[in-house]
Amino acid sequence: MTKYGVVVGSIRKNSYSKGVADAIVAGLPEGSDVTYLDIASLPLYNQDYDADSPAVYTKFRDEVKAQDAFIFVTPEHNRSIPAALKNALDVASRPWGQNVWAGKPALVASQSISGISGVLAHHVLRQSLVFLDMPTLQQPELYIGNTNKLSDENGHITNEGTKEFLAGAGKTFSEFAKKFI
């Protein structure tokens, strides 16, 4: 059974990114082991902690290590990824030479309430994942715009076409991930 880690870049309650992630997860094979990783409680990465990491860093790194593949869903903040997501990438890739993301296949999705769909955040995240040595699904590209019109007040995707598209991407990702696991 494949273990999928899900990292949602938005830490707000009822986030649209979480709704997109849920719709992607719906397309994973039955019986998949899915874990949503908490990035909200991670203290900011500080290299001074490398010699003696806080317990929360160690716990997070162990959670990342335990996963076979990752689904990342992010909103766009100021033409980049949210600070909490960048921090999570840094925490689990440090100390230098101990990157626990390495070799794990990844899917990237971005979303926005605007029509540009978080495209810049999407590419910033992809660039980081290349450096972290994570093979990343190239197609389909998942830029989801106008999420406020595709979702309910709790952030769940309600548009049937979008749900079907995202579930299809989850299925495609599961097939891609098998090549690396």
Automatic annotation (TrEMBL):
One of its GO terms (molecular function) is oxidoreductase activity. Pfam families: FMN_red (PF03358). Residues 3-148 form the NADPH-dependent FMN reductase-like domain. GO terms for cellular component: cytosol. PANTHER family: CHROMATE REDUCTASE, NAD(P)H-DEPENDENT FMN REDUCTASE LOT6. This is NADPH-dependent FMN reductase-like domain-containing protein. It comes from Liquorilactobacillus sucicola DSM 21376 = JCM 15457. The lineage of its organism: Bacteria, Bacillati, Bacillota, Bacilli, Lactobacillales.
